[in-house]
């Protein structure tokens, strides 16, 4: 009995997060989904069924439909703490009068999340400076993002139809590549207020609304922590948390081998899972999931052979495109052993923005290309801090960013794609936490 009890205590000991008071409830469930993540968050966040920002509770029911960013963001986050998404999605700030109108009461309990957003801390200082810079920026690169995205949409349509008409591997690979790049460019848009470009993300069979939760609200805010759905959704097949209780060492070696298959399965499995859950539990499909069917239908319509032949070609395009997307996305910036993951020691200054910097290493090899940044999750650190800004204008914020970072003893790290691929594989194998805080590990000499 005693031994069992001791073992249980030891087993439960790992159930803590470095960025929150509570172990996330959704991680206690066998299946991790957007829905279970939000439900768990409602239980953990001490928001008392309302919307929580810092220690204030608001009833935004009457504001949801009026929200300039689109109703989805607030509809889905009811009953949760939205402090960080609120801070990061409004650079110029939301007039206090709007918030005051919906204030209900102070929250009874302290916030679950332990990262800070202090007025004079790194993130809010940088945000004020960026808001000032935004008044004088050259916005013409936004037009280029628009043209790149349009070009990729046309290329995807063209190469897909050419693949349907001809047996040509070059057309097929071009269709797969265009679709992968198109979806990453569409990601630039689903972070912003509702727009038509976000719908093009759904050509992959994934859904932009789903990604607004798993990526924008979960991954962007609680990066690399136990709250990050973009980590937990891949477990136990791929596990980047350095914790042997989540995935054993043996499992981690297997994950290296299955990695390519997981990449290729991202697009189709997304739709299959949501369809199955919609059939057997609660609906998780949106009307715009139908957009994903346009490519196979168009291929069947123009195919000179049978519809089945067209469908097989489309399935190959989807699998290859998903592989390219996974390769780019999962090796973009978050997973090398030098990057903070839940369990690793954090710096003493628990500023949310500095934490972001410690969970990201940028791709230095694509810095100079607008097209590559848009299609390869480039300028990732700045993108995490200001997700609603078009990727095209981020380079103009680089100097104010670096200056502020230097003042707060943060560092923007950069490595190549290849280094990320190698580092990501090493991270998959890592089970030991890093006990040295990031600011004590860094070799950079800070300006005094
Ligand atoms: C989960 C929390 C929230 C998210 C993720 C969110 C997201 C967004 C997004 C994406 C935009 C468009 C930004 C752009 O494209 O430039 C936006 C704009 C806006 N939101 Fe929110 N929002 C949230 C909460 C709120 C709340 C609580 C209020 C006020 C009660 C609010 C008021 C506004 C206003 C006034 C704008 C237009 C002005 C601006 O862009 O700064 N939002 N929001």
Assembly status: single chain
Biggest pleated-sheet summary: 3 strands, antiparallel
Number of helices: 19
Structural class: mainly alpha
What is the domain tally? 2
- Helix % is 40-55%
Strand order of the largest sheet: 1-2-3
Radius of gyration: 22 Å
* Poorly predicted regions: 1-9, 443-448
Distance between the termini: 58 Å
Strand content: under 5%
Name the bound molecules.
Answer: protoporphyrin IX containing FE
The overall average pLDDT, rounded, is 94
Strand segment tally: 5
What is the overall silhouette?
globular
Order of helix and strand elements from N to C terminus? HHEEHHHEHHHHHHHHHEHHHEHH
Notes on the protein architecture:
- This protein has about 450 residues and is mostly helical.
- The chain folds into 2 domains: about 15-115, Cytochrome b5-like heme/steroid binding domain (Flavocytochrome B2, Chain A, domain 1), CATH 3.10.120; about 125-440, no CATH class.
- It has 19 helices and 5 strands.
- Strands 1-2-3 form a 3-stranded antiparallel sheet. It has a two-stranded parallel sheet with strand order 4-5.
- β1 (about 50-55) and β2 form a beta hairpin.
- The longest helix has about 30 residues, at about 250-280.
- It binds protoporphyrin IX containing FE.
- Protoporphyrin IX containing FE (HEM) binds near residues 73, 82, 89, 92 and 98.
- Protoporphyrin IX containing FE binds near residues 63 and 89.
- May play a role in muscle cell metabolism.
């Amino acid at each position: 009995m005693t031994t069992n009890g001791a073992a249980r205590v030891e087993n439960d000991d790992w159930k803590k997060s470095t960025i929150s008071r509570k172990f996330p409830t959704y991680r206690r469930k066998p299946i991790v989904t957007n829905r279970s993540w939000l439900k768990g968050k409602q239980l953990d966040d001490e928001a008392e069924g309302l919307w929580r920002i810092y220690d204030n509770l608001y009833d935004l029911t009457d504001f949801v439909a009026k929200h300039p960013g689109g109703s989805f963001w607030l509809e889905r986050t009811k009953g949760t703490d939205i402090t960080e998404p609120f801070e990061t999605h409004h650079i110029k700030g939301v007039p206090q009068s709007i918030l005051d109108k919906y204030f209900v009461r102070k929250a009874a309990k302290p916030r679950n999340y332990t990262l800070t957003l202090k007025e004079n801390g790194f993130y809010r200082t940088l945000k004020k400076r960026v808001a000032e810079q935004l008044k004088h920026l050259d916005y013409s690169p936004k037009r280029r993002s628009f043209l790149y995205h349009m070009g990729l949409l046309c290329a995807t349509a063209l190469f897909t139809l050419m693949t349907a008409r001809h047996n040509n591997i070059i057309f097929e690979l071009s269709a797969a590549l265009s679709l992968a790049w198109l979806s990453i460019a569409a990601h630039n848009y689903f972070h912003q207020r509702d727009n038509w470009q976000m719908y093009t993300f759904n050509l992959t069979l994934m859904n932009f609304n789903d990604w607004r939760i798993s990526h924008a609200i979960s991954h962007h805010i609680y990066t690399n922590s136990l709250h990050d759905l973009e980590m937990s959704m891949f477990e136990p097949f791929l596990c980047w948390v350095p914790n042997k209780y989540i995935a054993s060492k043996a499992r981690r070696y297997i994950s290296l081998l299955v990695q390519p298959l997981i990449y290729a399965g991202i697009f189709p499995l997304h739709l299959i899972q949501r369809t199955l859950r919609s059939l057997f539990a609660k609906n998780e499909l949106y009307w715009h999931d139908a957009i994903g069917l346009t490519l196979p239908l168009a291929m069947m319509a123009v195919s000179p052979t049978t519809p089945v032949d067209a469908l097989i070609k489309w399935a190959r395009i989807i699998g290859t495109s998903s592989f390219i997307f996974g390769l780019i996305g999962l090796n973009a910036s978050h997973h090398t052993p030098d990057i903070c993951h839940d369990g690793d020691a954090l710096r003493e200054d628990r500023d949310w923005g500095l934490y972001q910097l410690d969970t990201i290493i940028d791709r230095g090899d694509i810095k100079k290309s607008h097209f590559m940044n848009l299609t390869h999750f480039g300028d990732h650190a700045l993108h995490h801090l200001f997700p609603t800004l078009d990727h095209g204008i981020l380079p103009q914020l680089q100097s104010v960013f670096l200056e502020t970072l230097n003042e707060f003893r943060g560092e923007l790290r950069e490595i190549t794609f290849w280094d990320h691929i190698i580092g990501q594989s090493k991270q998959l194998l890592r089970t030991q936490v890093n006990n040295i805080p990031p600011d004590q590990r860094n070799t950079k000499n800070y300006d005094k």
